[in-house]
Specification:
Elements lengths: L1 H8 L2 H6 L2 H6 L4 H9 L1 H15 L3 E4 L7 H4 L7 E6 L8 E2 L9 H16 L3 E4 L13 E5 L12
Length: about 160
């Protein structure tokens, strides 16, 4: 929904400067439109931006050249990514390794071996930041999240 609204209105500033009627005309629920109209999210966004920068995380919008081209092509791409690691890797050939929330020791060992072998062959390992998948050096991986405060287990470690 955020991407659709951003495309329709052109910029975050236009969204926050819009009238309540205009926000509701974009099919936002009334409660959401009212919160946006109060501009309260602006102070929260400023605080999050400061925290994100302090953590060494870069915010990447979909209109920046580093934004992953393949991600731009999906039906509803996220307008903003939180990126940590080598940002230049985002437009190379990526692969994700998806596993269990509670992997066995053997599962972790095999995932690590597979990830290292793939990275040695030039593929980029992309992590959604779930628990247990931080086994590559930062220069060989890209970590992406749509929302820094995502509550998935292990995200903030």
């Amino acid at each position: 929904m955020a991407g659709k609204l951003l495309r329709a209105m052109g910029s975050p500033e236009a969204i926050f400067n819009a009238s309540l009627t205009e926000l509701e005309s974009h099919r936002l629920p009334a409660a959401v439109a009212q919160v946006i109209h109060t501009r309260q999210p602006m102070s929260a966004a400023a605080k999050e931006l400061a925290q994100t920068q302090a953590a060494g995380i870069r915010l990447l919008t979909w209109d920046e050249p580093e934004y992953p081209q393949r991600l731009r092509e999906i039906y509803d791409p996220p307008p903003l990514l939180y990126v940590r690691g080598n940002i230049e890797l985002l437009n190379r050939h990526p692969i994700s390794i998806v596993g269990s929330r509670r992997p066995t020791r053997y599962g972790n060992q095999m995932a690590e071996k597979l990830a290292r072998d793939l990275a040695d062959r030039g593929l980029v390992i992309v992590s959604g930041l779930a628990r247990g998948r931080r086994f590559l050096r930062p220069q060989r991986r890209a970590q992406l999240a749509y929302g820094r405060d995502d509550r998935r287990p292990g995200l903030r470690n």
